Amino acid sequence: MWRHTLFTISFPSVNEIASLDLYVWVVNSYHPHVQEALPEPSIVFPTPLIEEKNFSENESDLKRNKKIVFEHGNVQVSLLTQATDREEVGHVIRFFEEIVTEQSWQSGDELRAYPDSSKYFVFKVGGCLAGALQLVTGNSDEGLPCLKVWPELGLHGRKDVADLALIALRPEYRDRSQNSFWCLWMEAWRYGIHHNITEFWAEITPRKHKIYWRMGLPLLIEGSLRVHWGAPSYPVKCSLETYAENMKARSEKSQIYKNIVTQMYRDQPHILNLLREPIETAA
User: Fold this and answer.
1) What are phi and psi for residue 30, nearest 5 degrees?
2) How confident is the model at residue 59 (pLDDT cuts 50, 70, 90)?
3) I need a labelling partner for 190 at 20 to 30 A (CA). Which of 128, 164, 167, 261 fits?
4) Which candidate, 232, 239, 191, 184, places its Cα nearest to that of 216?
């Protein structure tokens, strides 16, 4: 179940709201204080978002840095797998189990069901685990989480798809300026692009589907509403190419999305050069 509570929020003024198109108030589906009508918050990325670092070349540093996919200040995202990082992955799974218990989700054995196909993106602040994302890549043996409830989707054996199985954050980072969702999401997207993955799939409640759509995530409903992890959910598909085009289009009018695209394409200067034009402002 693609569930989580989300990150950095700072409420803009009425005038700023008129120029923003980002809706990023994502909360647990069962949170008792959720209101249907909420003001639109903005997110604030660190400046500069991309930080170049020089690392020493000793063996321990090379091993450590191979896992790190993003680092800025005391914020870090690492990529782990069961095959090479068994002990660390064990800590992440236990963290997931804590969140599942806290939220009363009915996950069964899903957290440990895809050991060979799972990639774990781990979000740390000051060296401490603050959140994580589990991405289950397409395979012929273990299957995908969405196929447990929607076996007719025809994804078995496809290597160009992946399932966003879970995103979880510690409570103290859900409402603070850590940009945790976007850091995890964008590193998963970059992984997908570099590994010939064309689609992300997920299992999502109707309420969250609306919220993510407004954020610019093109999640297309691909099946009927069924119970997943104890909640009525849809199987949804996100084209990585379409998502990128959405972000680039929004970046033309929003500094927030311009920062997001800069993060997405930080190693592709030919695309970043296109982002250096001033942001259009309404007359």
Assistant:
1) -100, 10
2) very low
3) 128
4) 239
